[in-house]
Amino acid sequence: MDTSENINSGPDTVSEGSRSCQRLRNQSGFWLLGLCNNFAYVVMLSAAHDILKQQESQNTTLPTPAPGLHQSNSGNSSNSSRYDCNPVSTAAVLLADVIPTLLIKITAPFFIHKVPYGCRVLTCVTTATASFLVVSFSSAVWMSILGVMFASVSSGLGELSFLSLTVYFSSDVLSGWGSGTGGAGVAGALMYSALTQAGLSPRVTLLVMLLVPVVMAISYFILLVFPPSFLQWKTRETQPSLSSMAEQSRERRPLLQEDDSIHKEQNKEAQQTGPLTFSDKLHILKGLRRFILPLALVYFAEYFINQGLLELLYFRNARLSHAEQYRWYQTLYQIGVFISRTSLYCIKIKKIWWLSVLQCVNAVLLFFSVYYQFLPSVWLVFVIVLYEGLLGGAAYVNIFYMIHAETGEDEREFAMAAASVGDSFGIALSGLAAFPVHSHFCSL
């Protein structure tokens, strides 16, 4: 009897161990994909400016510096202002880094399903590699900007593709993705600073970072364990892997329950016979507004702070220089983002609008602190910036977790990709708003 029990329990034990190993591989794979996807985006905001400094004769054609490399009291500074300003806001490079991403996220969800996931990932790897190569070997301003744009294309295409990809795995891979994207900010800033501080030139440092696209390819093609029905190199006009849950998904379609019942019936019939139509996707977008709007608002507020206000928050009596204060602002922000994007493992937040409201309160507080200069210490700003990162990261992961949990199986892949436009839209608006604000304060 004991032998029989041992024999019977063997396969179950092996199966359970195999499932645990598969879950660990998938979570690790999405963590690395999140890290690699955002890595080039983060590094380019700093590295592009370092490369451009070698082009002194052409430097006036690109208004910089980039975030994290604020040059106080330099030849470019406007010392007549009480804010120790650069001629143009750091939002300039930010816009070059976010506009291609925004264009991709606005258009791609309507046709990207026709491109196999394997081809998408190879495109991300290629454009990320090109970004490092073009910026490192740039000999003109336009080449550096082109490199930044390559990084933006890779990040934008990767984000909407990998978010869509999560629907083929268990929901806990979202925690790995969110934590990895948060870690990219910390890892990118620390790795770039450490290598350049160790004596490597910016060009050599960027060439070393060519390992990052390689890790992305390994994480996707080798580390992830795909379900048997997943088509890597072919398009899928129907979703056979989801058909077993079709009836359940038709019973709970919260994103499609806003409007008339006629449209809902048409949607049900369409899902029984084929993929989502263009009309279906527009209807889903209407339901996604309650997620996209708070995501856009929270990112508008935080990037308005980061690119429009933080460079003006300089405490002259502190032991840290202006450049050091700015670098610590950015570092603490990224640490806050990393912590909160990792928090999905242990806590879920449903009141996402409160996160947006609290972030706007931060923006208003820091705006008036720049104007009236009433904050007593740089250490208080450090705390606010860390808190700002916590709010932004929490909004991101919880919004996509709610979309994943509340959408039906047949609409989830499109919804995850389409909602990703919210953060880029907010960032782009904040970059545009930062220009007049920067000009106003620096004219005082």
Automatic annotation (TrEMBL):
Pfam families: CLN3
Mode of membrane association: Multi-pass membrane protein
Cellular component GO terms held in the UniProt record: endomembrane system; lysosomal membrane
GO terms (BP aspect): lysosome organization; regulation of intracellular pH
Alphabetized UniProt keyword annotations: Lysosome, Membrane, Transmembrane, Transmembrane helix, Transport
Region listing for Disordered, in residue ranges: 1-20, 59-82
Regions of compositional bias (Low complexity) in chain numbering: 72-81
The keyword Heme belongs to this UniProt entry's keyword annotation: no
Tagged with keyword Transmembrane: yes
Transmembrane segments: 29-48, 91-112, 124-153, 173-192, 204-226, 291-315, 352-372, 378-402, 414-435
Subcellular location(s) per record: Endomembrane system; Lysosome membrane
Family recorded in the similarity comment: Belongs to the battenin family.
Name used for this protein in its record: Battenin
